[in-house]
Amino acid sequence: MSYRILLLLFAWMSCGWLFAQTPDSTAQESDLDFGEFDDFDFGDVEVKTYCSSKVIGISPQQLISLGYDFQGSYDASFSAIGSFEDGANVPQETYQINSTQGVRLVANIPVYSRNSLVVQLGANIWDMRYQFDEPDDQISNEVARSINQNGLRTAGLNTTVFKPLDETRFLLFQGSADLSGDYTFDNMQSLEYLRYSAAALFGWRKSDYFQWAVGLSRTYRVGEMNYIPVVLLNWTAKDSPWGVECLLPARAHVRYSLSPRNMLFAGFELEGQSYRINGVSETLNNQSLEIRRGEMRWRAMWQRQLTGFVWLQAQAGYRINWSYNADTLPGGDEFFRGFFGNQEYAMLNSLTNPFYANISINLVSP
């Protein structure tokens, strides 16, 4: 567990280093993205004025995104199902995965807009297909075999609420419910295995170029449920093309704008969720076996307008495995381990790290 904490701390420090390298000038993220509210006009108010969520130079909000994600070849090692301390030396079966790939469909639509309140609703479907080098009859580990046969997927709903308090202060709330596992849409997983995430932040809009916020989140971004502090920072240099878009520790990017419709980014993002392996779970006496998938993606990214409100996004980078262990949850009830808990795992699994690429077509806000 200690290497994961060090990796997380390194990500925090990397964002700080990148920010420090940006030219000094007057001030100027499924989740929290202030760009999604950029183009709302709060209008004239007679008695009280409220801060806008708009930050000059920030990347545009993606209302609808259709993308394709691809990971190259890597090795996956699976233990038997049992009870193991984290880091224990246990026998594993190793398989070569030639690729992992799938479609990602995301929609985030503002449904209510007033000068004092903005509400957004969203939905997402992510599909991951694993192509093992070994045929099914040579995959003896039942969890690995199920993943090879069925893949993993996530379907979820989310909402984001932006509440300005006055000319400089605001509140931001986010909540989501995701159903993740090896189910198919012909044979859906029970909704009792929904996993819930949420975040609440208090922030300040210091200028048209700079806003920041602090808060607390309940998240599955590293696979397991965790409670962590979060810091949001959106900044654009006033007299240069540089900027920063961060929601630490979930993601952080340095932005370089070739033009307002052509942007380059470098940084990282954490991805993860808890995936129920349904066929195996049904043999475990009312226990839900869940893969705690978490990964860190270091990447370069390019966003460019194609025409009108249609943008292209392309990214390439290196996927670092954070966790692929599994837990058994009696009755499907979640528990909190955090970074320092010592609850044993039901499986100790590991993945090597491949290069990855992702491309998407996006309809952005006006």
Features:
366 residues, 3 helices, 14-stranded antiparallel barrel, single chain, Outer membrane protein beta-barrel domain-containing protein, signal, 54% strand, mainly beta, globular
List the helices and strands and how they pair.
Elements: H1 2-21, E1 62-71, E2 74-79, E3 92-114, E4 117-132, H2 142-150, E5 152-164, E6 169-181, E7 195-207, E8 210-219, E9 226-236, E10 242-248, E11 251-259, E12 262-276, H3 278-281, E13 287-307, E14 310-323, E15 326-330, E16 350-351, E17 355-364
Antiparallel strand pairs: 1-3, 1-17, 2-3, 2-16, 3-4, 4-5, 5-6, 6-7, 7-8, 8-9, 9-10, 10-11, 11-12, 12-13, 13-14, 13-15, 14-17
Count of DSSP-assigned helices? 3
Annotation, overall tally of beta strands: 17
Strand residue content: over 45%
The gross shape turns out to be globular
Question: Uncertain runs with pLDDT below 50, 5 residues or more?
Answer: 13-30
Keywords: Signal
Protein name: Outer membrane protein beta-barrel domain-containing protein
Quickly describe the structure.
By secondary structure, this protein is mostly beta strands. The chain contains three helices and 17 strands.
Explain this structure:
This protein has 366 residues and is mainly β. The protein has one domain. It contains three helices and 17 strands. Strands 1-3-4-5-6-7-8-9-10-11-12-13-14-17 form a 14-stranded antiparallel beta barrel. Strand 11 and strand 12 form a beta hairpin. The chain is globular. This is Outer membrane protein beta-barrel domain-containing protein.
